[in-house]
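Notebook entry, structure prediction.
Reason for the run: the old model in the group folder had no record of what sequence produced it. Starting over properly, with the input documented here first.
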Amino acid sequence: MGDLMTERLVLHPISVDEAEQMAAGRPDAEARWEPGFPTEGDVSVAKRFLEHFASTGNPQPFGPYVIRRRSDHRAIGGVGFHRPPDEHGNVTIGYGLVPSARGKGYASEALRALLSLARAEGAASVQGDADHDNTASQHVMRAAGMRQVGEDERVRYFAVSWSR
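New structure, fully documented this time:
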C-alpha cells in the first residue's frame, strides 16, 4: 500500500516500525514530527495497530495513516479506519491533528482522501462520530461530505454511503 497524496498532504500507511516509535514516543533519526506528535490518540492507534498486526496481519488499506504536510514532510496527525469493513461493507473512521495544525482544513482534506479510498476499495459506507461540544470535528466530517445521521446524549453520528 502506497502513500495517498492530496494537494497539501501525504497520508502514509503506518508501518510496524513507525507504530513502535509512536507507541514509545521516540522517533528515529529520520522521523520528522511536528511538536505534539504523536498525540495521546496517535499512541493509542499505534498500539492497536501493533496488536492487530500481530494477530491478523496488516489491515491496509483499512488501517491507520500518518498525516504529513507535503511542504515539510512533518507528521501532524493521523487518520484511519478503526478496522476493516464489516460483513455489510461498513467501516468507521477516526482522525486527529496536533494543535498547531488545526483550523487549516487539513483534517477535512485528509478525510476526503480516506473516503475516496474507502469507496474505491469497495466499502459501502463510512461512519464517524463526534461529541456534542466538538463542533470542529463535526465541521470536518460535514466538509468531507458526510452527513449527520443521528445523535444520542453523548455524540452526533455521521455517515456517507455508496451503492456497490
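Summary: The chain has four helices and eight strands.
The old model has been moved to the deprecated folder.
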